[in-house]
């Protein structure tokens, strides 16, 4: 940690640094698109970019080893703000980009959506730039709604429950609702229910709050919807792939999920109901419609890099307006408001999905899981009441137990 501290205090470069820029990226459509555009950047800047491309697990392993050792052989890094952001920022692995980001008029930091930008900031400093976003929306079957006499999708959670019950009763063998049920996997999608009931994982003072009345109501509603209107003999270990399969096989009327997965539902090769799928904004709860609006991936600069000026040049280009528009036209949702406002930026999306995303970006919350260092452990803890609610156990008692365990995790991280 002494070596890390030295690199954090002395990291950075005042000049241009090396003409060779070392960039570490994850396997993703965004990465493939940016690699194709790299010759343009290299020609503009005279820099040579060396890309290391890895799977998520390999990427995490490499960061764990190199960043912890204070290694300077990574300049730009693609990382998951909600999974690793607090750990990286707390350990000072990420360089402070505030002055660079705010000082570039062309970059237009104020063009980024507030939720994702909040998730890539730490102690009021910009430590990353969001490049890929996700929002939770409502997937639904247009044909089943029409058959049940509905002219529009539900706008509130109460309307969702009523419509799910009605459609299920009129269509034996079809569930009214499906969503993730796995203890950890469900946390992210449950978060929008939690926020829309007026709750959060922690309160304004940073204390665990999954035992608040709002949280208990959200757990009970989500679990009850799946228990009463979900698939028969519902598994409590479903991630998105299992829940999506139920929906795309025509076995459910409603499904709440990340918009980034929408092509699984609209692609005829993957979905039996591709021609009847509709999208709507996340239904409003007692606190309104508050889905998450998060950055699933961001770009940061290794604080130990000796090439930070050139590293910023890469981010300024890769996350700039031109590349953001090109990425979004290729189906990769970005974090810039100007791109979503541009007809070209939404031309490849179904219109109702683009409309739903517009609502989500306006009212969205910038996290979909607890913002802690031990993210995986925290998800197991706060996800247990979801499973208990689905199986009909005492939700209030489960929430109290989870809150105690979550508070201990928070205390241990101080």
TrEMBL record:
InterPro entries linked: Bact_solute-bd_prot1 (IPR050490), SBP (IPR006059)
Protein name: Sugar ABC transporter substrate-binding protein
Highest taxon listed in the record's lineage: Bacteria
CDD domains hit by this protein: PBP2_TMBP_like (cd13585)
Pfam families the UniProt entry points to: SBP_bac_1 (PF01547)
């Amino acid at each position: 940690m002494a070596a890390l501290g030295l690199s954090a205090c002395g990291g950075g470069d005042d000049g241009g640094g090396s003409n060779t820029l070392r960039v570490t990226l994850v396997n993703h459509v965004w990465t493939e698109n940016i690699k194709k555009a790299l010759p343009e950047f290299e020609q503009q800047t005279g820099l040579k970019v060396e890309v290391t491309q890895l799977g998520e697990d390999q990427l995490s392993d490499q960061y764990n080893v190199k960043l912890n050792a204070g290694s300077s052989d990574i300049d730009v890094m693609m990382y998951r703000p909600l999974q690793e952001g607090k750990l990286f920022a707390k350990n000072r692995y990420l360089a402070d980009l505030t002055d660079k980001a705010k000082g570039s008029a062309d970059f237009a930091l104020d063009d980024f959506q507030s939720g994702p930008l909040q998730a890539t900031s730490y102690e009021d400093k910009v430590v990353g730039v969001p490049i890929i976003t996700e929002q939770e929306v409502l997937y639904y079957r247009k044909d089943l709604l029409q058959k049940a006499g509905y002219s529009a999708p539900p706008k509130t959670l109460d309307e969702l429950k009523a419509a799910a019950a009605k459609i299920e009763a009129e269509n034996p063998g079809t569930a009214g609702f499906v969503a993730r049920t796995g203890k950890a996997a469900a946390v992210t999608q449950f978060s929008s229910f939690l926020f829309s009931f007026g709750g959060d994982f922690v309160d304004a003072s940073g204390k665990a709050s999954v035992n608040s009345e709002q949280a208990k109501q959200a757990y009970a509603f989500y679990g009850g919807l799946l228990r009463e209107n979900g698939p028969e003999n519902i598994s409590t270990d479903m991630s998105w792939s299992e829940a999506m399969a139920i929906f795309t096989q025509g076995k459910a009327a409603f499904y709440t999920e990340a918009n980034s997965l929408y092509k699984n539902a609209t692609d005829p090769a993957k979905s039996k109901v591709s021609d009847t799928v509709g999208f709507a904004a996340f239904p409003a709860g007692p606190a309104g419609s508050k889905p998450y609006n998060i950055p699933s991936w961001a770009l940061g600069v290794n604080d130990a890099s000796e090439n930070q000026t050139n590293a910023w040049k890469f981010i300024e280009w890769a996350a700039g307006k031109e590349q953001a528009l090109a990425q979004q036209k290729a189906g990769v949702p970005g974090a810039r408001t100007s791109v979503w406002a541009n007809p070209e930026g939404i031309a490849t999306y179904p219109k109702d999905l683009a409309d739903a995303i517009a609502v989500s970006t306006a009212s969205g919350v910038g996290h979909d899981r607890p913002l802690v260092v031990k993210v995986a452990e925290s998800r197991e803890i706060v996800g247990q009441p979801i499973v208990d609610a689905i199986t009909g156990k005492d939700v209030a008692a489960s929430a109290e137990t989870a809150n105690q365990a979550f508070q201990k995790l928070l205390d241990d991280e101080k």
